[in-house]
Design brief:
It is found in: Cell membrane. The chain is mainly α. The chain has helices at about 15-20, 25-45, 55-105, 120-145, 160, 180-185, 215-225, 255-260, 265-270, 280-285, 300-315, 325-350, 355-380, 380-405, 415-430, 440, 460, 480-495, and strands at about 5, 230. Helix content is about 55%, strand content about 0%.
Length: about 500
């Protein structure tokens, strides 16, 4: 999935800015109430009839509506902010999980019980890197799950989970298929239930990426601002028996997105539409073929968590991680599950329809009565005043409706894809460290540990038999006393130099 980078493309287009603003959803109501205001003003100004109402109710009703709309917008933003906070937790826990797996699980292991040899260092590193990839897959699966996109066949998810077992122990048939894989299959691209089916060239689709040569080297490529990026290019290239869905597939804005009042006709005509598969069902019934029932959905993030939890349990039982730190693995997975539960609560608990309908009807009544109450005072200014009031009141309602579920593809929603890319970058940054012995890099000529009190390098310091620094005066004793004076001098220098 090649995505344009808006930073170097001038930002959002005017069309996207229009769709992102509340103007796209309220312009029809603005025209309607503006028309009502025009009619009331014209009749009251150009004819002897006065279409006026007592404005005593205007202040009271306007104050109440303002408070209710403020509560509506605040509650929606609270859900938006809560969703962002939960994704921050997922990023943090994913980072901690990866660090615990990469650093604390041992690469030097004994022969396992019942085994013939001890695993090699390479095998241990492959094992740990694969589980860290599962941590990344967990975040990606949460993104798709919140967007209502079931299954695992996505460009950013399938390459990370393709090695997971598809069947229960000892099985190779559809009846033995594990829930995550069973719920992902459909009748369009049937899976061959046999060993080695993914190696059958007649039943696989492969994706290859063309490496682009760079004449600037690695650092040069970092400094070069690319106008497009392809996040899926860095994922494994795995054979698959069906086309993978794009990692990000937002619906294209339709005609009714610009003309919202036409959506009522879609609702009226919906019961009379035939399903696109209705003809297929009839044909299969005539031919006597039995259509396979639609598989039940499964919670992919939970199933990926099961594999991570099982791995943590195995490492703990076999003693490959210190018992004190083993709790970090279980706690990290449990915390991500807690974040997922809260995200599900936000996504699946909309504001009650009765509350939304009552509030919108109240605002409409208020806006209908507004021109009749202010025309005597404002005259022709009643028209722009009514239009602006309509935009302000209904705009807040639309904003609240847009952000109460911030996990979809609306332009005002949270950028879940960027959160997943952030996790991907950080996990690869963690595994890029080879974990050398600290003595290999601490005692070199590039380290000045006691600066600014003592600017000698660590290599120069350890060349002495005992630490001493002549700048501390003749009463300074070699050893720990001199070190303490160096640290105190460093504190004084930093304290004076960093205060404004």
């Amino acid at each position: 999935m090649v995505v344009s980078n808006p930073m170097y493309g001038g930002g959002m287009s005017i069309r996207k800015k229009l769709l992102a603003s509340s103007l796209a959803s309220t312009w029809l109501e603005m025209l309607f109430f503006g028309g009502v205001a025009t009619m009331v003003t014209a009749v009251s100004t150009l004819t002897p009839h006065q279409l006026t109402l007592n404005n005593g109710l205007l202040g009271v009703l306007g104050t109440v509506l303002g408070l209710v709309i403020s509560f509506r917008t605040s509650s929606a933003y609270e859900r938006y902010s809560d969703g962002r906070m939960r994704w921050t937790n997922i990023v943090t826990f994913s980072r901690n999980l990866a660090m615990t797996i990469w650093i604390h699980i041992s690469n030097d292991r004994p022969v396992p019980p019942g085994g013939t040899r001890a695993p090699t260092t390479l095998e241990c590193i492959i094992e740990k890197k694969s589980m860290i990839n599962l941590v990344q897959a967990l975040a990606v699966s949460i993104k798709h799950y919140l967007r209502g996109e079931p299954g695992v066949y996505y460009q950013d998810l399938y390459p990370l989970v393709s090695f997971l077992p598809r069947y229960a122990a000892g099985g190779q048939t559809e009846a033995d298929m594990l829930p995550m894989w069973h719920a992902s299959e459909d009748g369009d691209y049937p899976y061959q239930h046999k060993v080695g089916s993914l190696n059958d060239s007649t039943n696989t689709l492969t994706t290859s990426y063309k490496e682009e040569p760079s004449s600037h080297g690695f650092m040069g490529s970092l400094r070069k601002h690319h106008k497009v990026f392809d996040p899926e290019k860095v994922l494994p290239v795995i054979e698959v028996h069906r086309p993978l869905k794009p990692a990000k597939n937002p619906p294209k804005p339709g005609f009714t997105d610009y003309f919202p009042f036409l959506k009522i006709f879609k609702l009226i005509l919906k019961p009379f539409r035939k399903s696109p598969r209705s003809q297929d069902v009839d044909i299969h019934a005539v031919l006597g073929k039995k259509r396979k029932p639609k598989p039940c959905d499964s919670n992919v993030p939970v199933e990926i968590s099961l594999f991570l939890m099982s791995y943590a349990n195995t490492m703990t039982k076999e003693g490959h991680i210190p018992a004190v730190l083993a709790g970090n693995l279980f706690a990290g997975i449990a915390n991500i599950q807690d974040a997922l539960s809260n995200l599900e609560r936000i996504a699946n608990t909309p504001l009650p329809f009765a509350y939304q309908a009552h509030l919108r009807i109240s605002v409409w009544v208020y806006l209908l009565a507004l021109p009749f109450q202010i025309v005597e005072t404002f005259g022709w200014l009643t028209i722009p005043g009514t239009i602006f009031t309509t935009f302000m009141y209904l705009g807040f309602l639309e904003i609240g409706q847009q952000i109460e579920n911030p996990f979809n593809y609306d332009l005002n929603d949270l950028d879940l894809d960027e959160f997943c890319y952030m996790i991907q970058r950080e996990l690869h940054e963690i595994t890029a460290h080879p974990l050398p012995d600290p003595s290999e890099y601490l005692f070199t000529g590039l380290n000045q540990p006691f600066a600014p009190g003592d600017r000698r390098t660590a290599q120069e310091l350890i060349s002495e038999d005992e630490y001493t620094h002549s700048a501390h005066g003749p009463d300074s004793k070699p050893g720990l006393h001199s070190i303490q004076r160096t640290l105190l001098k460093g504190w004084k220098d930093v304290d004076l130099s960093t205060r404004k």
